[in-house]
Amino acid sequence: MYNNDLNMKKISQPLLSYLVPLFFDQDNDRTLSRVLSQYSKYSQKILDKIHFILVDDCSPVKIKIQEITNMNISLLRITSDIMWNQGGARNLGVNYAKTSKLLITDIDHVFPERTLVHLINRKYNYNDLIRFRRFSGLKKISTGYNIFYLNKLLFEDFQGYDEIFWL
Fold this sequence. Notes:
Elements: E1 2-6, E2 16-22, H1 30-40, H2 44-47, E3 50-56, E4 72-77, H3 85-96, E5 101-104, H4 113-121, E6 129-136, E7 139-151, H5 152-157
Parallel strand pairs: 2-3, 2-5, 3-4
Antiparallel strand pairs: 1-4, 5-7, 6-7
């Protein structure tokens, strides 16, 4: 594994870890650039409380992240091509997280600023496990299966993602 803390500002303690596994097999990072660019426009007060953890699960194309100076971003790279990719990448990201509150999602989802504010300010609850409805514009499209807000201790008690299941 390779770790690259990008744009990590010295903040006392982030309150929310925003975890995303990544895999790019083409030289196309438009989705990642678009999502990070959109988040970079959110209130600095909110961004200072979020640690974005991106886990590259051994993409054949090196993931490049644009310089965004107002966000706390860490990029972890798995350097061995192993079978457990996405589940293991999520487990690795949670292990690296420095907060008790986790938001685990896919790169093609963007949360409204007010949702992130709510999650950051939400009272600590061990039993929190929230799944989200997905919308395209105002139209509900489905519930995301890989989108969760939960407590790190609960994730660890569940023993994370079953990496054998992903084989």
